[in-house]
Write a structure and sequence with these properties.
The structure is a homodimer.
Chain A (H helix, E strand, L loop, with lengths): L2 E5 L4 H12 L3 E8 L6 H10 L6 E6 L34 H16 L3 E3 L15 H14 L1 H4 L5 E3 L7 H10 L24 H13 L14
Parallel strand pairs in A: 1-2, 1-4, 2-3, 4-5
Chain lengths: ~230, ~230
């Protein structure tokens, strides 16, 4: 059984991605990042969400991206609400974040002999993030295979992005077919101190639309206590 | 005057690279990393070395790569001494380190509008590190231009590796022509607690050979107090 590293925030996309990796027969290493995100509840939630993946190894890696800033997720900028344009790159873009995370994942990959990296990016519902585009993923895969010891020794890294071309509704349906539990997944960029989602940021809007299109009630709405 | 980010350890290569960037007219941002390196004296020294670059901004970014390990520089493995083979990748390789560092540099680049990244890699005297190869640098440049906001907006990152094909002696001669002060540069991977270089690791051996071939006494040998 090969190891795979999953970039894991405990949101809908990364949770579904983890389920796909497990279904494909990989032994899971769930890598989450304490990067100074405004929505720190994500860290509590992701632990809870990870419990559904029996046998998985969880790693939390701290990297303080507030020292870089430049994003509404890592500084005091306002998170945009009910945003109109889906064309421009929003201020919730965190400079080079996913590149940094995937680079760190490749380092862990060399340690765990886990050359399959799972990344829950998707382009249809994405909010204009450049690091969710297939041409980025392809270039990074080449970079990893040229710049790492593993790559130099002929072992190939493979970045899997199984959600890349799915809508949020398709992702949710696919997850439910696999038995994914979405109850504790967290999406909101700007939750209240008790963890209650704002309902108006891009991430909340896309989540709500996804469940509506899938014709399913969001199970997280059934949580009596949101912040555990 | 454009900003440039220099990956800066305060060793011979990155110090010479900084001087080249300054000579090319860039305003310098010297980015160093507190990554849990065994040779922590590098952090003290790099500050001292940076003082020769008038007007430069210094940033120190902490990222604890000992949590990943897998290298003699970030774990309790022994640093090899007087190593014979230059063909295999040594245990001083830190998994994906330079990829991680350059990724973080690109994030700062987006903040500082510094799309010129200077990287002191070189392939002739290199110790077999895959991330010092031109094909890695080229692939990463493509990755940055596809995966960052700046890249998506048509601004091009450029990774400069001006030392890539120079020998250590050529690097030293070039630096001296530009007036680089090497007195406080640090190279050793495995210094004594007082900072005295071991003299036998790859980095010490390459340094000594470089000064010998350049026909110059290493000015660091004149330091009466090594650890300041």
């Amino acid at each position: 059984m090969s190891n795979a590293i999953v970039l894991f925030s405990g949101g809908i996309d990364s949770t579904t991605t983890a389920a796909i990796a497990q279904r494909e027969g990989f032994s899971l290493i769930l890598l989450s990042f304490d990067y100074g995100q405004r929505h720190r509840i994500e860290l509590l939630k992701s632990q809870r969400v990870s419990e559904q993946f029996a046998g998985a190894t969880s790693i939390r890696f701290p990297i303080d991206l507030t020292r870089i800033g430049g994003s509404a997720l890592t500084s005091s900028m306002d998170v945009p609400k009910n945003r109109d344009s889906k064309l421009e790159i929003p201020v919730t873009y965190v400079p080079a974040r996913n590149l940094i995370f995937l680079s760190i994942a490749s380092a862990f990959g060399e340690i765990y002999q886990a050359y399959d990296l799972f990344y829950g990016a998707n382009i249809l519902d994405y909010s204009g993030y450049p690091d969710c585009r297939p041409e980025f993923i392809e270039a990074l895969e080449t970079t990893l295979n040229r710049g790492t010891k593993a790559g130099a020794e002929g072992i190939k890294f493979h970045i899997h992005a199984p959600l890349l071309k799915l809508s949020k509704a398709e992702i949710i349906r696919r997850g439910l077919e696999m038995g994914v539990q979405y109850q504790h997944t967290h999406s909101c960029y700007d939750p209240a101190p008790d963890g209650t989602p704002c309902g108006e940021c891009d991430s909340c809007v896309i989540r709500r639309k996804g469940f509506a299109e899938a014709g399913i009630e969001d199970p997280a709405l059934q949580n009596e206590v949101r912040y555990e």
